[in-house]
Amino acid sequence: MGKVVAGVAIVCAAAACAAAAVVVSSRMRVRSQRRHARNVLQEFQEACSTPLPRLRQVVDAMAVEMHAGLVSEGGSRLKMLPTFVDRLPHGDEKGLYYAVDLGGTNFRVLRVQLGGKQGRVIKQEYEEVAIPPELMIGSSDELFDFIAKELSSFVAREGDGFRPVAGQSREIGFTFSFPVQQTALNSGTLLNWTKGFKVVDAIGQDVVAALQTCIQKRGHEMRIAALVNDTVGTLAGGRYWNEDVMIAVILGTGTNAAYVERAQAISKCGNVLPKSGQMVINMEWGNFWSSHLPRTQADEALDNETINPGEQGFEKMISGMYLGDVVRRVLLKMAQEAALFGPNVPRKMLEAFSLGTPDMSKMHADESSDLKVVGNVLRDVYGIENTSLAVRKIVYEVCDTVAERGARLAAAGIVGILKKIGRDGTHSKWKVASEQNHVNGCEEVGSPVASECGKTVVAMDGGLYERYSKFRAYMQVAVVELLGDASKDVVVELSKDGSGIGAALLAASVSQNGRK
Ligand code: ADP
Ligand code: MG
C-alpha cells in the first residue's frame, strides 16, 4: 500500500514537474520571442534615426537640389516646376469664383463670393465627393467627365448670396495636385500620376483642355482661369490673409511644397521671366531623394510594391498614404520572426495598406496606462485579441518611430526651402534683403527698412498635418532644433482648405473682373 502511495506521489510530482516545465518553457519562449521583437524594434529605430547632423545634411541636400532643379530641366529629381503664378492674391478681389480640387482620395467643388478688402470672403460653400476607385485607374474621359458632372450639379444648386459679375462667365480655379508641366497659367501637361492614380491616357494631355471640353459638353459657360497645384493654392490662400506667407507645404495623402522664388533664380526659364520679378515654384518635393535619408528594409519593400517604384521616395517616408504601411511592414516582420501576435501571423497583416495612417495615429495618441486604444485597433483591424501590455508597447513604439522620422524629415525639407530663400538665419540680414528684394516682402533694396524682413510664414495643409498631433509636434520641435534662434522669425501654421479656396482666389486675381 505504502509503495502504491509512493508511486502515485512520484507520478503526480513528475506530472506537476512536466506541467511546470511546459509553463516555464512556454514563458521562456514568449520571453525570447518578445526579446526578438524588441531587437527588431531596436534595429528599426536605429535605421530610422534622424540626429541633428543628419537632418542638417538633408536640409543642405534639399537646398542644393532646389538650385539644380531651377538651373536646368531634369537637373534634379525635384522638378521645380514654374507655375506662371507671378502675383498672389492681395485681398481686394471681388465677385463669384469656383474651384475644383482634385487632390487624392477626395475631390472637392467650391464657390466663393469675394467682397474686396472690406468684405473679404462674404460667403463660401463646398462639397466633397470620394473618387470612385475605378476612375483612378480608368480612362481620362471618364475621370474628367466625372469631375464635370459633379461640378455641373453643384453649379445647378447655386443659391442666394452668390452673384457672378454681370456679363461675365463663371470662372474656375482648377486645383490639380499632380505633376504638371505648365505652359501658361491656364494650361499644363500631365507628366505622371502619383498617390495611386494611373489614368494612363491622360499623361501628356493638357488637363485644362480635357476638363474644359467635358464642362462644355455639359452645356456650361464656365472658363478655367487658372490651373494650380494644391500647394500653390495653399500658398495663395495663405497669402490672401497674411502677406508674410512665403512657403506652402501639404502633408495629406501625398506631400508637396511650393514657394515664392526670385524670377532671376529660375535660369531654366531663359528670358520668359515675369515682370513682377517673382514666380511661384511647385517643387514636387515628394520625389526628393538624398543618400542622407534614413531608408530601412521596410521602405525598400514598400517601394517595390507600389505602382511607381523608385519614384516619390521622400513622399513614401513622410506622407499619409504610406506611414501606416511602413508600420504594418515592421509589425509583420515581428509577427513572422518573433510570433509577436501569437503562433499565427494575422492574415490581414499580409495585405498592403491594411493599416491606414489614421489607425496608426489613433494608436499613437493613446495616453492610457494600459494602451487600451492600441489593443482595440489591433483587434478591430487585424482580429488580434487579448494583446499584452508588452506587445502594445512595442506596437506603440513602432508608430512613434515612423511618425517621428517622417515629421523630422518634413521639417528638414521646410528648413531646406528657408535656406534656399535665405530665411534660415544663416544669411546676413542685409544680404538677404538685397538678394531677395521685394520677393520676400522687403520694399527697398539695401535700405534700413529692407534689413527687417520680419516673419516668414509657412502655410501648412493636409489631413496628416491637421489630424496627427504627435506628427505635428515632432515637426515643430525639429524646425526649432534646426533653426535655433532664427526660429523666432518663422511661423509654421495650419492654413486650412487653402488649396480649394486658394485656386478660386487665384482665378479671381488673374481674371479681368477680379480687381477693381
Ligand atoms: P488629400 O491629400 O487626398 O487631398 P487630405 O489632405 O484630406 O486629402 O488628407 C487625407 C490623408 O490624411 C489621408 O489619406 C490620411 O493619410 C491622412 N489622415 C487623415 N486623417 C488622419 C488622422 N486622423 N491621422 C493621421 N492621418 C490622417
Ligand atoms: Mg488635398
UniProtKB/TrEMBL annotation:
Residues 247-508 form the Hexokinase C-terminal domain. Residues 41-240 form the Hexokinase N-terminal domain. Its EC number is 2.7.1.-. The keyword Transferase applies. It catalyses: D-fructose + ATP = D-fructose 6-phosphate + ADP + H(+); a D-hexose + ATP = a D-hexose 6-phosphate + ADP + H(+). It holds the Pfam family Hexokinase_1. It comes from the Eukaryota. InterPro entries: ATPase_NBD (IPR043129), Hexokinase (IPR001312), Hexokinase_BS (IPR019807), Hexokinase_C (IPR022673), Hexokinase_N (IPR022672). Keywords: ATP-binding, Glycolysis, Kinase, Nucleotide-binding, Transferase. CDD domains: ASKHA_NBD_HK_plant (cd24020). Pathway: Carbohydrate metabolism; hexose metabolism; Carbohydrate degradation; glycolysis; D-glyceraldehyde 3-phosphate and glycerone phosphate from D-glucose: step 1/4. Belongs to the hexokinase family. This is Phosphotransferase. It comes from Sphagnum troendelagicum.
